[in-house]
Amino acid sequence: MLQDSYKLKGKRKQLAEEIKNQGIRSEKVIKAIAHLPRHFFFPNDFVDKAYENIAFPIEGGQTISQPYTVAFQTELLDIKKGDKVLEVGTGSGYQAAVLKVLGAEVHSIETVRELHEETKTLFAKLGLDIFTYLGDGSKGLPELAPFDKIIITAAAPSISKPLAEQLKIGGRLVAPVGDKSVQKMILVKRDGENEFKQSTHGQFTFVPLTGTYGWQ
Ligand code: SAM
After folding, report:
1. What is the CATH number of the domain that holds 171?
2. Of the residues 110, 149, 185, 204, which should be mutated to test ligand 1's pocket, given the most ligand atoms within 8 Å of the CB?
3. For the segment 166-176, what is each residue's pLDDT rounded down to a tens digit?
4. Residue 175, beta-bridge partner list
5. Per the residue annotation, which of 5, 26, 65, 181 is the catalytic one?
6. CA-based angle 119:171:112, to the nearest 5?
7. What are the pocket residues of ligand 1 if the criterion is a CB atom closer than 6 Å to any ligand atom?
8. How many separate domains does the chain show?
9. pLDDT (tens digit per residue) in 44-92
């Protein structure tokens, strides 16, 4: 459903408030959550669920991430206007749209064809100028590298060297890394040609990353 209403706007504001209370500090990120209609990215019959702070099943056995998780990863990325960002795992398109609202140039890759095609159509309908790709994002998008920021939105067994090397110096990569049932949120900062600094930020559960550097 691509219509908005006062009721849904109100629910969105409440959701943004809830995320703030959970510890998200970036005003820009909170504003983006309050601004962007999450129900646009939801299956039609479940619009009512769009402003609950939960992950939700979408097509292809995948999920739209929990709004708190989207806000958390986005805050760690520290998006600046004009940042060239690679997202691995387009899914519903919501995270990509949040990045776009924050002024990034978004390149998002998805491995499930139906999700790729649906989000491509949806972005066009919403007038969101987001570049979409179908393929194995675990390898990144070397032909478009380097990126200011990289975000992986599926559970990765590790951060692959080829992906980390697609970061600009000064860039940031955020990814949930662990086994298939639970992951730690990892932030990698590239400080030099061969200098990567890693820090850990809380525990999450994502659907598995597939492909060459995923769980196959
Ligand atoms: N960012 C999404 C959103 O806002 O709805 C949520 C993504 S969902 C938790 C993870 C997505 O990663 C799924 O759509 C899945 O198909 C995709 N995925 C898994 N492995 C992938 C890979 N190797 N390359 C690209 N996408 C992948």
Report:
1. 3.40.50.150
2. 110
3. 999 999 999 99
4. 186
5. 65
6. 25
7. 62-65, 88-89, 91-92, 94-95, 109-112, 115, 136-138, 153-154, 206-207, 209-211, 214
8. 1
9. 888 889 999 999 998 888 899 999 999 999 999 999 999 999 999 999 9
